[in-house]
Amino acid sequence: MNAWGIAAAALLVALVPLGVVVVGSQIADALVAFELAGTIVVLVLVLLAEAFSRPSYFVVPLALAPLSIVGGLLFARFLPSRP
Amino acid sequence: MSASVVEWTLLAFAVCAELGCVAGVVAARGALARLHYAAAGTIAGPVPVALAVLVRESFTQPGVNALVIAAALVVLGPLLAIETARAIRRQGRR
């Protein structure tokens, strides 16, 4: 495993505590953790594409980066006004 | 300094920054306090990763793709943080 794979594995491990926050916290806290998880998943996909030396794999994070942001915006827009 | 050392350094910085943001989101109390760390994660991680890809690939297709991804996250991330903060304030939470 090269440096890119090690970095991807480390960031994948970081998703676990974020999942705990998403599952166990109130909805606003879960939304914040979800947004950071989206960013980390984009980075993991970039790192894996580089680790496997497959330029075509960059299409996935290229599509996911704006879509995860837009998804977070929609979740924030329709967040209930009461906790 | 060889290119691989620069790659390793940038990747280590990106991973440490993202792990710090995750630790902040987990440890902070209150959604707005957590949001500070989540918003930082949209800039502190993608930029060094894109630079590391650029160091390795130069301005080929992977390098340009990584730049576009980082630019999307850096530009749209603060917008998402602002909208999320507004939603949290609508809830009357801190």
Keywords for this entry:
heterodimer, A: 83 residues, mainly alpha, flat, B: 94 residues, 4 helices, 86% helix, 0% strand
Question: What can be said about this structure in brief?
Answer:
By secondary structure, chain A is mostly helical. Chain A has helices spanning 3-24, 27-51, 59-77. The model of chain A has no long low-confidence stretch (mean pLDDT 93).
What does this structure look like?
The complex is a heterodimer of chains A (83) and B (94). Chain A has helices at residues 3-24, 27-51, 59-77. With 83 residues, chain A is mainly alpha-helical. Chain A has one domain. In chain A, helix 2 (27-51) packs antiparallel against helix 3. Chain A is flat. The termini of chain A are far apart. The mean pLDDT of chain A is 93. Chain B is mainly α and 94 residues long. Chain B has one domain (3-90). Chain B is elongated and about 50 Å long. The N and C termini of chain B lie far apart (46 Å). Classes of the chains: A mainly alpha (83), B mainly alpha (94).
Helix content of chain A: over 70%
Distance between the termini of chain B: 46 Å
Number of domains of chain A: 1
Contiguous low-pLDDT stretches of chain B (5 residues minimum) are none
Per DSSP, the total helix count of chain B is 4
Radius of gyration of chain A from CA coordinates: 15 Å
Would you tell me the overall average pLDDT of chain B? 93
Which structural category fits the helices and strands of chain B? Answer: mainly alpha
Write the layout of secondary structure elements.
The complex is a heterodimer of chains A (83) and B (94).
Chain A: H1 3-24, H2 27-51, H3 59-77
Chain B: H1 3-27, H2 31-44, H3 46-57, H4 61-90
